[in-house]
Structure formats: structure tokens, C-alpha cells
Amino acid sequence: MDPKIKLMFLDEHTAEGAERFGITPKDLIFIGGFQNFIYSYIRDESKYILRFTPSTLRTSEGLAAEMEWIRYLSDNGLSVSDPVLSVNGKDIEHIEGNTMDFYATSFNYAPGRKIGYPECLGNSILYEQCGRITGRLHELTKLYKPTSTRHTWEFNEYLLRAKDYLPAELQPIIHALDELKANLAGLPVTSDNFGLIHGDINIGNFTVNESGEITLFDFDECQYSWYVEDIAIQLYYLLYVFGEDSQSERKAQYELFIKHFELGYTEDGRQMPDGWKNQIKLFLKLREIIVVVGMYRSWDLNQPDDWTRDFLKDSRIRITKGISLIDEF
């Protein structure tokens, strides 16, 4: 979270947002958030999420597009965390402030449990389920006719504001990003490989029930992009947890994920996106840059811990040399 935005989010914003959804501030439990302020609450014995989004991050039209898409996916059988209407019957409540406005939205709390590290590693059943829900999502996207407009990949905040967030000594990362964006802009764009994607599928953004079925939530990063980006993001977060001296483990993890993810994705005759295996390296590079930019935006890196320091050092080397995690094998 941008430190400036933290200072502008006040108790009265929380109170007004809670009231719009029929609760009080004491009903809210803060559970975090990287770009938004996220709370949980219980009403009528059911659990929900209340999210406050800075107006500098999303437009009302962009949020309306997110809500519309989630409802479309849910109506067509995808397990997602559905939006909840306010007491005024609205998806989005506009909370005005003196220095910044916020948008309040609410969602059903996803059933099941999260799977963290290291349980997710080497989990072929989970990888197949990830492939299955990603494939179904992309299949539904191809048939989607929205009424509200969501941004495209090049308008991702981390890409637009990388120069603002990165220190001057990391200018080589900006050069690498510019080159990568040019390469991405040259990729084919067809209805079979490009559309509205989740944009941040990872173990922090889904739950798994007792049957192993996944429920997706946190569609805040949904955008128009190549479907392979949704695949690369999942792979990235499974690979980067291994240290530099664990390349054999990282390679085994990559091969296991690709094999079982593809099995799930292609179930019921679905086809993988054209050229996805060749393009995945590009989107692994993109995700690495986005993660580094996000860390400099939201974290105090004056005294990083050992893991963060080593990660940033390794990432900088990869980014400036133009290599992805899987190029190291």
C-alpha cells in the first residue's frame, strides 16, 4: 500500500462504508490488503468481505466492470466470491473524503481454506485444479459481452508508475521494462489468446474446499491481456520461493506444474492458448518486474531482511539481463 494513501484513509471512511453495508465499525476486522483496505465482517450469521479502494487506483467504471464480470462468471457456474449489494442496493458505494475518495464494495467470504507454503509445492492435484478453473474462466471470457469497460494490460498501475516507485539506481529495470513492453505489444491478439483475465491468481487469492475445488476471489487486478499471463503468474509464485541454490527443485516444480496444470486446463476439450509455452517466459519477466515495483511502492526497504535483500538482488540481475526464472535451468 502506498504510504500516502494510508495516511488519507480515515476512521470516518471506514464508518461510512460500514454503514452503507448495514454494519458498524466494531463489526469490522481488518485483514490487510496490498492495494486496498480489506475487512471481514459477520452479518446474519454469514461472513463477508468489505473492501475500500482508493479512487486513485480504480475508476467507478473499472469497478463496475469488475463486479459485472464476477457476476457473469458466477452465473455461468464458476466458483467465485460473489459481490454483495449495499443497503441502497448498489454494488459500489462512493465514500467522499477531503483529500481522497474511496469506493466501498462487499463480497461473500470464500468457502474452504487457503493453502500456503510449503503445502502448495509439489501438489499435483492442486495444480490440476488450478488449470481446471483457469481454463474454465478463459473459456467463459471468450463468450463474454460486457457493458462496462476494464483497462488493458499496459495500463496496469505498476507499469504506468514504475518510474515513480523505483529509486534512480534501478533505472536499468525501467529500460528492461520498456523493452519487454515493446516485445509484448508485438504478440498476436486474437479471441483465442487475449481477453479479460483474473490477473492475480495465486495461493493468496483462492480457497480450497474439502473436495479440492477452488473458489477464486480478489478480482481487483482483472484486465484485458493474453491468457498466458494468468498461467505465468501462478507459476511465478510457485517458483520464486526456492533459493538460488535450489535450481533442481525449481526445475522439478516447473515441470510438475506445467504437466498437471495443462491436464486440468484442457479438460473437456479446451485448448491451451496458442504459443503459450514460448510466451510464458515473457510473462514471467513481466511478473518479476511488477513484484519488484510493488515492493518498492509498499515496503520500507531501508533495512530489508535477508530473504528480501537476496530476492531483490537476484531479481535485479535477472531483469537487467533479460532472463526469466525458467531460463536459469
- Number of DSSP helical runs: 11
Shape estimate? globular
Instruction: Determine the oligomeric state from the structure.
Output: single chain
Class per helix and strand makeup: alpha+beta
SSE run: HHEEEHEEEHHHHEEEEHHHH
Calculate Rg over CA atoms: 20 Å
Poorly predicted regions are none
Give average pLDDT, whole number. 92
**How much beta, percentage-wise?**
5-15%
Helical fraction equals 40-55%
- The number of distinct β-strands equals 10
Task: State the main characteristics.
alpha+beta; globular; 44% helix; two-stranded antiparallel ribbon; 329 residues; 11 helices
Question: What does this entry show, briefly?
Answer:
This protein is α+β, with helices and mostly antiparallel strands and 329 residues long. The protein contains 11 helices and 10 strands.
Describe the structure.
- 44% of the residues lie in helices and 14% in strands.
- The strands form three sheets. Strands 1, 2, 3, 4, 5 and 6 form a six-stranded antiparallel sheet that branches.
- It has eleven helices and ten strands.
- With 329 residues, it is an alpha+beta fold.
- The relative contact order is 0.13.
- The model has no long low-confidence stretch (mean pLDDT 92).
- Helix 4 (124-141) packs antiparallel against helix 8 (227-239).
- Strand 2 (37-43) and strand 3 form a beta hairpin.
- The chain is globular and about 55 Å long.
